[in-house]
Specification:
The protein has 16 helices and 14 strands. By secondary structure, it is of the alpha/beta class. The chain has 2 domains: 2-139 and 392-423, Glycogen Phosphorylase B (Rossmann fold, 3-Layer(aba) Sandwich), CATH 3.40.50; 211-388, Rossmann fold (3-Layer(aba) Sandwich). The strands form 2 sheets. The protein has an 8-stranded mixed beta sheet, sandwiched between helices. It has a 6-stranded parallel beta sheet with strand order 11-10-9-12-13-14, sandwiched between helices. α2 packs across α16 and α10 (244-256) crosses α14 (357-368). The chain starts with a strand and ends with a helix.
């Protein structure tokens, strides 16, 4: 069995794909399926379209990564509305031709698996051409929030385009339960339940639960000591992640908890803007930016945190929140989207009614002054993780077994079609 993963480049993989680091720096839901499919005996090819200088091949623990440069005109391209359709068309043609070339050299795929909905037409065409299964992976969606909360006509029209991609025929859609209500979009569009699965991501339970001791070395490298009360944000520095809310809360926190410090881990387009905000608020000595880290070191970093904060727009339920719970951290998150599906206020974390700086500061100060409550919440997080969360191996095996059943059914139908055609030919 051979599976082709089709995707655009991810920020969390950028340095890994350029051989600057040896392991991906985040997005385990992107790269762990490659490794699990390989371990289950599949031949795995990953086709990544990005701003690469030239075509290249990488070996990632037995999986073959094909780096596909997008057309030079669109390298490092940013939103230019008049050319946006041309941009997507050029990317689609480039991906289609590249995959077709790989198939000619190395063999036909049994499964075409796309990661982004912008590749839905390419994946569908390739699956039709090679009579392969077509799987869509939807990591989360803006559509629910935009469709129901926005009054702008242009945004509504963009949602309609997104809905069309959701409705595009496939053998299965795997939708992440990241709190953005992908299941409600599926029901709104009347997608049959047999055609989608709405699943929570897994966590690396064994590794995460091993980071119980606070890493003094890491605290020291950040300029902090064991006496400091460490707050942590760990995610991509993007507009909707809203780390600025925690930064704005820091002056209020420091008035009551002068030994409080904030570690911001990750990278993204908002990094310079957030750094500027820190300087303007005079927080240079209290807030540290540590950049991206390899995902297999997350447990060591999490071990430094006394409180883990998540104040995203739309939803705070993502990989990092699940990982913080599995690490037994005290988690504070805004009660928005489907966050409360996992974070239970007062049992395994704190849900805030708003994400205003005053609310964040009040919640953190209360926790800092109440070590018994922190200990109770941390223990509740560990118990919840053991009882409710799946390991990544369990989560991916569930997916692979589902796709194997679909593939077996697909083969039966194909044989029946061939027999029917042969019978018709004999009659004629």
């Amino acid at each position: 069995m051979r599976v082709f993963f089709l995707t655009h480049e991810w920020l969390a993989l950028k340095r890994f794909l350029r051989r600057e680091v040896k392991f991906p720096e985040g997005m385990p839901s992107v790269y762990l399926p490659w490794l699990r499919y390989k371990k289950r005996g599949y031949e795995v090819d990953i086709c990544i379209l990005g701003d690469f200088e030239k075509p290249d091949l990488l070996d990632f623990e037995g999986c073959t990564i094909h780096l596909i440069p997008r057309p030079r005109f669109f390298q490092n391209w940013r939103w230019k509305f008049p050319l946006s359709r041309l941009y997507y068309l050029a990317n689609s043609i480039t991906m289609y031709l590249a995959v077709a070339s790989i198939v000619r050299d190395q063999g036909r795929p049994d499964i075409i698996y796309i990661y982004q909905l912008r590749l839905v037409r390419v994946g569908w065409l390739l699956a039709k051409r090679y009579r392969a299964l077509f799987i869509k992976r939807i990591f989360g969606t803006y559509a629910y929030s935009y469709w129901y909360n926005s009054k702008g006509l242009r945004i509504k029209c963009n949602c309609l385009i997104t809905f069309l991609k959701w409705l595009w025929p496939s053998d299965m859609s795997i939708i992440s339960n990241d709190g953005t209500h992908g299941d409600r979009i599926a029901r709104l569009l009347r997608i049959p339940k047999s055609k989608f699965r709405f699943w929570l991501n897994g966590v690396d339970m064994e590794r995460l639960s091993s980071g119980e001791q606070i890493s003094l070395a890491l605290r020291s490298s950040s300029g902090f000591s064991k006496e400091h009360f460490i707050l942590m944000c760990l995610s991509r520095l993007a507009a909707w992640k809203r780390q600025d809310r925690v930064i704005c809360a820091m002056p209020l926190i420091l008035k009551e908890i002068p030994n409080a410090r904030l570690l911001i881990i990750g990278d993204g387009p908002k990094r310079q803007e957030l750094k500027k905000m820190v300087q303007e608020l005079g927080l240079g000595a209290y807030v540290k930016f540590m950049g991206m880290i390899e995902h297999n070191k997350v447990h060591n970093v999490m071990a430094c945190a006394d409180v883990f904060l998540q104040t995203n727009d739309m939803s705070c339920l993502g990989n990092t929140l699940l990982e913080a719970i599995a690490c037994g951290r005290v988690v504070v998150a805004w009660d928005v989207g489907g966050t409360r599906d996992v974070l239970i206020d007062g049992e395994n974390g704190c849900l805030m009614p708003s994400a205003e700086p005053e609310t964040i500061a009040r919640t953190v100060i209360n926790l800092a002054k109440n070590p018994e409550r922190r200990q109770r919440l941390a223990e509740g997080a560990r118990i919840f993780a053991k009882e409710k969360l799946q390991s990544w191996d369990e989560r991916l095996d569930m997916e692979i077994d589902l796709i194997k059943r679909i593939k077996a059914k697909h083969r039966r139908f194909s044989r029946q079609e061939e027999v029917a055609k042969a019978s018709n030919a004999v009659r004629k």
